[in-house]
Design a protein that fits this description.
With 1000 residues, this protein is mainly beta. It is built from 4 helices and 78 strands.
Amino acid sequence: MSVALWSLITTRTPMKPQALIVLLLAAVLGVFAYFVLLGDDEIAPVSVPGGPAQSASEGVADQASVESVGGLDHQQASASEVGLTRTAVKDVAVTSESAGFCQLHGRIVDGTGVPRGGLALSIDTWGMDQAFEIEAVFSGQNVAHEEVTTATDGTFRVRVQANRQGSISLPDVDLVFRERLRFTATAAEQDLGDLVVIGAARLAGVVQDQDGKPVSGVVVAAALGAVGFDNQSNVTSGEDGTFSVGKLRAGNWHLTTKSSEHLPTSSKVELVDEQQVTDLVVVVHPGYEIAGRVIDDRGVGVAGMKVASQRVLSLDGVDIQRYTDDEAVITDELGNFRLAGLEGRTVKIRASGPGHAMVIKSNVKTGSNNVELRVDRLGSIHGVLVTMDGAPIVGSRVTARPQHRTAGPVEMAEGLLDFDVPGSGPSAETDEEGKFVLDSVKPGLVKVNARGKTHRAVSQPGVQVRAAQAVRGIRLLADVGAVARVKVVDVDGKAITGAKVLISPVPKPVTSGFNMSIVTGNGDGNDVYVGGRALGSGVTDEDGVVTIMGLPGGEAFFRATHANYAPSADLRVAMPASGSIDRELVMSPPSYIEVTVTNADGSACVGTDVSLAESGGDSENSPLEFMSGIGSSSGRTKTTDAEGKVRFGPVPAGAYVASLLRGKKARDVGGMAMFAVDQNEKIESSAKPVVVGVGETNAVLLTMPILAHLTGVVMGSDGPVVGCGVELTRAADDTGIPGLGGRQQRTKEGGRFSFEGVEGGDYVLRYGKADQIVKSQHEVTVPSNTAIVQQNLTLRTGTVRVLVLSKDDAEPVERAEVRLMRGSDVSKPGEPQIRSQVVMVGATRDGASEDVSMMTFGQDRVLTDEDGMAEFKDVPVGDYTLKVESRKYTPFEKAGVSVVELQLTDCGTIELAGAGQIRGVVKNEAGTPTMAMIEYRLLGSAAWVHGEVVLRGAYRLTGVAPGSYEVRARRVGAVTGEPSEPQVVEVEVGKTEVANLTVK
């Protein structure tokens, strides 16, 4: 099973006075990586037979997957209040053949419309629209796989679970769908129409060195769209340097080389349908090298360890840092290694391998031949999990996690979800005696966690693990917590079998200062937003009863969902700390809302996204919004069929608002297509209220309003600019973060750009060349009900250069961050900087790979080279402030940098003064490391500077000028707390001061 995790962390300054930090964790683990990596977009070497389809769900029994939209209490309203016609819902007979399933059918044709018979198809579906437990997401329990062969007339029919998203792929390596095929099974009978299959395109060529000689063993990676680097295929050049990659469709493909002997290269190739490009020449160049030895804790050389350097690339203004096995070397029998293809005066290297803890070493000088990397041998933990009265607990999952460390992407996800992500560390399942053994535990302080269906989560911190030693006698005592016995019945009191009961925490009131949301998706933009994990869940038996154990005390929401009933009203329950309670949930007959969408001329509006949201109410604090992202702010979304219709349901009776959406479009970030949160914008003028009663179907008609076609030409000093990126963002939603706002496209021939479906309002246009760091911008107002709006843009730019040296010894400062800020963008005291990061962690099916990539974007910045030089090309004319930052130096600002068209602005030499650091750990009153905002200021100053937000307590403030400072922390989360008592520290150059803080 492939595993991938990617997380997006965004820090930004909003329009409001108080700083808002938005943390977005997008978990694509297990099954979801399967669809991104092995879906129809998978590409493969043409010489490899077979196809991508391998079911991630073998052995998973069919089960009805229901759309869970449970709601708050809904007020009833008469039909006359909204002028709509209601039709009673027909009685639905629950049968094994019809309950929760969709008959999916269509026809496969070639590029000329001729049917393709006898073609094998792989259909995968996954539940993404329902409220779910986080465990089901990570474990891949919610995946179903079907295979079908087309008839002689090209038609196919297959039964899939309803209310699910899915993909269709072709095992035949020589064929691809003309367009990436995704669907949502929303009806009992669903026709996908004619699906066009064409021959696969191909990229082939030869890898050569700078002298034209063939180079073997170089990995050539091809990537198109998807999320970051996920959708790619790696092929290795042969002895004659040749490579060939197939199963490609039309599009702009990125070719990247990876090697432990050569510097990476990157190029773009645009393909049309079935194109065969066979004459590519990829030239690789040698770099610096280092040599050394990997030893264990005893000083013994370790064979078979992978040693790789961190690659730092800059692509379209995005700083990309990555480790990959494709660029690693393997140590010999004595632990020796030689790593080449390096760049820069210093590099960061990593050693990893089985049986040993990973180690990373920074600032290794290239050219060194005596580098030593010490990797500790892994240990083990043996223990038992029992209840408070000593009874063994069977089948619970026990994990071990390092303690007192700065949170990485996985640790952040685990902390926010209160969940141990599978594959992120050693884990084991307790046996019939409650015993467990955790192997491959990293030496040091470890926290052992245990989670299960029959008890509360339990942790034991402070377990000391030594290299190659076994820790025995660990005894975890688990509180069984409360037990809820829930019976689900219909309005007549009849038991309902197969209803899923979900128990969720009551969300805390949202306050200003810090907000977070969690997103999970499969990479195609159909994301589900969740605010937390379920406390417990279960499915009712033949008596309509389910028993859910291991529940915490406090208030919780109970809800029941079923494919053939409207979700129950949420029942707020005060759970005891222990003991059991009995509750009953009543499910009403199903209600449905049918939406028909037409154009202004009355024709069906096909393929349009429709949102259905609850009308009014406090959606931010509703359990509905908290658990599944369904509420008045985000709504739920479906796409109209060939008749312009969608059907929502079953839904609770009540008042709703139906609206049209523009649909999500991928945006280009660093040459990679990504989907961003909340990009599926609502067309406000299309919204209509709709009310549905118990057991009724209500119909509503939406008309697509006249939306503007915003078009124009980008002109530079030499004429039209082709390939210029243009980004359109609503002025009210503009964050100032390039690459994350609005819709994007690149100018075509003649420098022309065009945005369809633009609603009236004020917008900001950001535009610039592909490698232009600082973008130009222009404000435009789009009138309502206007068909065409013309807005031409002018790209007038110059160049800015600066040399950064150390003030102490006049040596170049390498990898200092240099930013150019317009007057409105200059940070004020106390404001956090704009910074966005995407972290991607990948593993192969055997778990051997440890590829990690991190992209940092959202800043107008470049990094100084090994000579301390930084240069901004194509900077829009105007006045700027130049800011330089580096971890070991005090920040420096230079105002009044004036950029003139087609001229070089040389800022001369900037000398950075040395700085110190402040580090520490933030704990709550119970002594547990906690999430907090770090603030500091010079002693005697009035304004507090926001240093950083920490998720697991540990913080480090770098680049702090010498002086006396006050440091404090403010607890953040759903509710922002009072600041801690400040501590006074004296910062000196080159030294690190410690300030541990306690927050209330």
